[in-house]
Amino acid sequence: MSNNKTVENLNKALQMEMSAAHQYQLHAHVLDDWGLNLLADKMREEQAEEIGHSDLFIERIMFLKGTPEIAFAKSPKRAETLTDMFKADLADEEEAVEFYLSAARQAYEANDVGSRMLFEKIAMDEEGHKAWLELQLELIERIGEQAYSAKMVSVIQDEEPSA
Fold first, then answer.
1. How far apart, in whole angstroms, are the C-alpha atoms of residue 117 and residue 94?
2. How far is CA 65 from CA 53, 59, 72, 73, 78, in A?
3. Homologous superfamily of 4-151 in CATH?
4. For the chain, which residues make up each domain, given as ranges?
5. Tens digits of per-residue pLDDT, 73-82?
6. Considering only CA atoms, which of 96, 98, 79, 90 is closest in space to residue 137?
7. Binding site membership for Fe cation: which residues?
8. Using an 8 Å Cβ cutoff, are 9 and 67 in contact?
9. Residue 53: helix, strand or coil by DSSP?
């Protein structure tokens, strides 16, 4: 039942999702460090969604009798500003959508309906991430990064956290 190109694409997708999950994990910690806990929570949601995507790719690879290759497409990078963070994530999401749509076409040509549908579903999810990132960048451009950051703090604490 295995189609080598489809399994290869599924493994590449798996690696992209693993990379994205760890990138969002790093972002969450950086944002916590910056005191932007609302954005940190959003990044944790994105991380969980990317892990869910990786699970779906693993399941499909296994269904096709392939071997999941758990690895990272690239290492996470720490951003120095919110703008840099969002721009880097946007570039990654654009790359993912383009790849998933190409992989969906290849799966269609191989008569692999399940893989095609999976790639299309994940592409739609990534388009949602892309739209959110574009909106955040527009907001930062409109009101400035400092004002945007102020909106992303849920509570300002005067006390040191207890150990």
1. 19
2. 19, 10, 21, 22, 37
3. Ferritin, core subunit, four-helix bundle (1.20.1260.10)
4. 4-151
5. 889 999 999 9
6. 90
7. 17, 49-50, 53, 93, 126, 129
8. no
9. helix
Torsion sign over Cα 153, 159, 160, 163: negative
pTM of the model: 0.88
**Cβ-proximal residues to 62 (8 Å cutoff; 6+ apart), any chain:** 68
The annotation places the binding site at 17, 49-50, 53, 93, 126, 129
Do 160 and 113 contact (CB within 8 A), yes or no? no
Backbone angles phi, psi at 88, to 5 degrees: -65, -45
Q: Answer whether 9's CB lies under 8 Å from 104's CB.
A: no
User: Mean pLDDT score of the chain, rounded to an integer?
Assistant: 92
**Tens-digit pLDDT profile for residues 100-126:** 999 999 999 999 999 999 999 999 999
